[in-house]
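Figure 6 in text form: structure in, sequence out.
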């Protein structure tokens, strides 16, 4: 089975994790790879980046969101005699929103995901759906955009993913968040079989700035040295470019934005090289 599910993570908010996830997906799709983005964050920022408010409203109204996988458990009818069982996964077809761009699809997030609690089985739902619908074979890559919390969403992403990408803003607080996250990964992996362990694909430095004291460059070097035996830092970074934020308001990606195209293309090429290297190990 292909190992092509990648979770984009960090235990600290405000680092632009969604921006990196969505724009890497769009760039790689433009390069001819089929990519599915799954928005598991209840804040649904990836969905807001990729869909207009009207299309999100339509998806939620038609129950064409990630929450549809969990709704039967959360809103269970205690007086119903119907036994749902595993059929709830198999019956949830047609939830993927196709054609965000050529080769780029989305499973929309939902604010109702806040209702989902870890009852011992909910954290298996996403992985079960990916397997039941053979999504690994249908797509070249599946990207999961995760919230910056230790929760059922994080555990779900761990269980569904083969690799993770850490997105950081190179500052002191991000470094602390990085240490906490890697400890969480270690705790998860130590109880897993080798083939079930989630592996680091790399660290992406985002929102970088050039300053007279080279603060961000120095902080990146510190991170490279501190975590060199755990996770390497991608050479290509994403700068703090105002055009990226402005474009996101209109559901435009970096590869469609003057001043941002070159950066995301270089990062995408490095990402693909890193991925090919890891899957061959």
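Output sequence:
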């Amino acid at each position: 089975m292909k190992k092509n599910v990648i979770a984009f993570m960090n235990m600290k908010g405000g680092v632009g994790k969604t921006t990196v996830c969505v724009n890497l997906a769009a760039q790689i799709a433009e390069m001819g790879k089929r990519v599915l983005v799954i928005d598991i964050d209840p804040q649904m920022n990836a969905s807001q980046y990729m869909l207009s408010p009207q299309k999100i409203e339509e998806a939620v109204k038609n129950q064409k969101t990630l929450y549809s996988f969990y709704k039967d458990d959360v809103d269970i009818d205690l007086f119903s005699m119907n036994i749902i069982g595993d059929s709830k996964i198999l019956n949830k077809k047609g939830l993927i929103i196709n054609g965000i761009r050529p080769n780029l699809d989305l499973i929309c997030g939902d604010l109702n995901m806040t209702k989902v609690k870890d009852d011992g089985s909910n954290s298996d739902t996403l992985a079960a759906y990916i397997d039941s619908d053979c999504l690994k074979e249908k797509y070249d890559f599946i990207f999961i955009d995760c919230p910056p919390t230790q929760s059922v969403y994080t555990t779900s992403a761990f269980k569904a993913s083969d690799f993770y990408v850490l997105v950081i803003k190179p500052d002191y607080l991000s470094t602390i968040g990085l240490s906490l996250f890697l400890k969480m990964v270690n705790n998860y992996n130590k109880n897993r079989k080798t083939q079930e362990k989630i592996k680091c694909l790399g660290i992406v430095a985002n929102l970088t700035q050039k300053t007279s004291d080279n603060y961000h460059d120095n902080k990146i070097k510190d991170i490279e040295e501190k975590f060199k035996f755990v996770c390497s830092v991608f050479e290509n970074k994403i700068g703090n470019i105002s055009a990226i934020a402005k474009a996101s308001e209109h559901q435009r990606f970096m590869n469609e934005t003057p001043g941002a195209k070159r950066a995301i293309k270089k990062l995408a090429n490095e990402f693909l090289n890193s991925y090919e290297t890891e899957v061959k190990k």
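Caption detail: The radius of gyration is 19 Å.
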